[in-house]
Each structure stands twice: as C-alpha cells, then as structure tokens.
Amino acid sequence: MVQKVEVLTGTYIRSLMILHLALVSGQVIFVLVSLFLNITHAMAPISFSPEVRGSLLYIAPAIAAGGVAAGWFLFKQRITNLKLLPPSTEKYAGYRSASLLRYAAMEAPSLVATMLFLLSGNYYYLIIAGAVILTFIIVRPSAAMLIRHLQPSFEEQMALEQPDAVLYEDDRVLG
User: Fold this and answer.
1) pTM here?
2) Can you give the three-state secondary structure of the chain, one letter per residue?
3) pLDDT (tens digit, 9 = 90+) per residue, 76-101?
4) What is the 3-state secondary structure (H, E, C) of 73-98?
5) Rounded to whole angstroms, how far apart are CA atoms 143 and 12?
C-alpha cells in the first residue's frame, strides 16, 4: 500500500543539518585525536626525504584547493537541473545528493591534510585541514541556502521560510 507522507521544511532542513554536523564533527575529532597523538608523542613522526617533504608542501594545498573547487563545481552542476523541477521528492533528494557530493569532495582534502600532519608532525598540514574545515562549516545548510541555490517559485520560497510548512509530498510504501 502506498501512502502520501508530507515532508515539512523544518524536518528536511534539520536532516541536512544533522548530516552536515556529523561530517564536520568527524573531521574535528580526527584533527583533535591527531593533535593529541602528536602532543603526547604517542606516535613518532615519519621522516620523509627532503624531496618528498618539499613536494608535499605544495601537493597538500593543491589537493585542498582542488577538493573545495571540485565540490563547488559538482554541486553547482547538479543543482542546475533541480531548479527547473517543481517541489518534489526528486528535487529535494537531488539537492541532498548534490550536497553530499560537495561535502565528500571537501572532506577528503581535510582528511588527507590531517593524515599528513599525523604522519609528519608538521603543523602546516593542520592549518590546511583547519582551513578546509572552516570552509566546510561555511556551507552549512539552511533555508536561506536552499532558496539561494534552488531559486524557487514564490510559493515554494514561502514554504522554505516556514519550518512547519509542507515542502513536498513523498510516496511511501507501507508493508
């Protein structure tokens, strides 16, 4: 049996915020654990050759910038088609998917930089990870972000601005 379920704006945005918070928290916890291991000397840094050490100093920020740029590009590319859709499961599932893709592209460089810090003990990589995490925090989902990205109709925008408004109806199979 298929039943129509109303998805409220507040519920949808809250689910995006929880997902975002979980991903940010994972990165921050990994940085804190790495920092703790470094400070307590629980893990000895690896001694890279001068060539590798020099290369990593350029590769790490390039990976970070590339990941953030790729995240923005992929996100913008995905939501371009979503703007044309009416309020629906497809539109908002697509937005969630595009957000996850952007988050993954941004999270990877942070994890790489933190791993390089853990291995080398060089705080330079921790600064890169911190910059990526701050960028990640800036893209925190909100109703205003959804409105800016999806450029909805007036009625849909009104629904996005009211947490108790029905954003879309979803067909759920009950069994």
Assistant:
1) 0.88
2) CEEEEEEEHHHHHHHHHHHHHHHHHHHHHHHHHHHHHHHCCCCCCCCCCHHHHHHHHHHHHHHHHHHHHHHHHHHHHHHHHHCCCCCCHHHHHHHHHHHHHHHHHHHHHHHHHHHHHHHHCCHHHHHHHHHHHHHHHHCCCCHHHHHHHHCCCHHHHHHHHCCCCEEEEEEEECC
3) 999 998 988 888 889 999 999 999 99
4) HHHHHHHHHHCCCCCCHHHHHHHHHH
5) 10
